[in-house]
Design a protein that fits this description.
The protein is α/β, with parallel strands linked by helices and about 325 residues long. It has a single domain, classed as Rossmann fold, CATH 3.40.50. Helix content is about 40%, strand content about 20%. It has twelve helices and 13 strands. The strands form three sheets. The chain has a seven-stranded mixed beta sheet with strand order 5-2-1-6-7-8-12. The chain has a four-stranded mixed beta sheet with strand order 4-3-10-9. Strands 11-13 form a two-stranded antiparallel ribbon. A hairpin with a 3-residue loop joins β3 and β4. α8 packs across α10. The protein is globular. The chain starts with a strand and ends with a helix.
């Protein structure tokens, strides 16, 4: 089985690098400076236990550079705002039955993929990944390189899910094949609604009343929509810790890193925006999530430095 990692940033790069080091077939799809750096020098990959090393993982800049068919699994790992254009490019060169696995935040990507491809799988990712510079990604999880569970979309488990989970386990990523993977992804979404707030004020975001209100709204709209949400504590989380890589600690979540690097629009439309959408469909007010969705836009528009605001700034609508 060959894994085609479409989007080789902090999450896709870590999944691809871990599988590559475990001897699995991997090719990365990475654009621009990042792709060029990997092509020239290999992917510089870092972990707390192993430090930094260059991995000669094959890389292309576009799906059209690959022959995609039997034995391939395409792992989507870009942020959700890039999914539609990626699927359109992929659909021009890949058969409609090629397996697509969405290793992304939110719950919309699988639905988008199913418009183009018949064999879609969800991946629930818990991983402290970091993209430091072009050609360089790392993961601060220890002792494993994160947790990535997998299952068919919209539900069920098949032999491919079990094979993917086994490969991830062999690659030092904890993984289970789960019958209701979207319940796991909704639970993750309920925590990700604070991502834009963390980008604005830093790690204190999760302790604020605003974040509590945003998470409560998420659970309320899921209940109103009759959608399952995983609530059982995961015993694997007790063994999971964030550790420095060569003395450098983890800098922040994906939104914090995107804002820090000036990468443009944040993913909030598919996180807070999902909660706002469900609230509007089912008559549930979602003011906290609407505020945070708008905040994500204002942070980028005003070129706000990551972590530079206070909770009072945010509540007052600044910037």
């Amino acid at each position: 089985m060959r894994y085609i990692i479409y989007g080789a940033g902090s999450i896709g790069g870590t999944i691809g690098a871990s599988l590559f080091e475990a001897g699995r077939g991997v090719v990365l799809i990475a654009r621009g400076e990042h792709g060029r750096a990997i092509a020239e020098r290999g992917l510089l990959f870092g972990t707390p236990a192993g430090g930094w090393r260059h991995l000669p993982i094959p890389v292309v800049g576009h799906p059209a550079a690959l022959s995609i068919g039997t034995g391939d699994v395409v792992v989507l790992a870009m942020q959700s705002q890039g999914t539609m254009s990626a699927l359109e490019a992929l659909s021009l060169v890949a058969p409609a039955d090629v397996p697509i696995a969405c290793a992304q935040n939110g719950v919309e990507n699988e639905r988008l993929a199913l418009r183009h491809f018949s064999n879609v799988h969800g991946m629930s990712v818990r991983m402290a990944g970091v993209a430091r510079e072009p050609g360089c990604v790392g993961v601060h999880d220890s002792p494993h390189n994160g947790i990535v569970d997998v299952g068919r979309y919209p539900h069920g488990v098949d032999d491919l899910d079990r094979a993917i989970a086994a490969d991830l386990e062999a690659a030092s990523i904890q993984s289970l094949a789960l019958d209701d993977i979207m319940a796991q992804k909704r639970a993750k979404l309920a925590s990700n609604v604070t991502n834009a707030l963390e980008a604005a004020i830093g790690r204190a975001a999760t302790k604020t009343e605003l974040s509590k209100r945003a998470r409560a709204e998420a659970m309320a709209v899921f209940a109103a929509a009759g959608l399952s949400v995983a609530t059982d504590a995961d015993p694997r989380a007790a063994d999971r810790a964030r550790a420095p890589i060569d003395g450098v600690p983890h800098g922040g979540n994906s939104a914090f890193q995107s804002l820090e690097r000036g990468r443009g629009r944040l993913e909030a439309d598919y996180l807070n925006g999902e909660i706002v959408l469900l609230g509007r469909l089912h008559g549930i007010p979602t003011p906290a999530n609407a505020l945070l969705q708008d905040l994500a836009i204002r942070l980028v528009k005003a070129h706000v430095a990551a972590g530079s605001l206070t909770i009072d700034d945010v509540e007052a609508g600044r910037p």
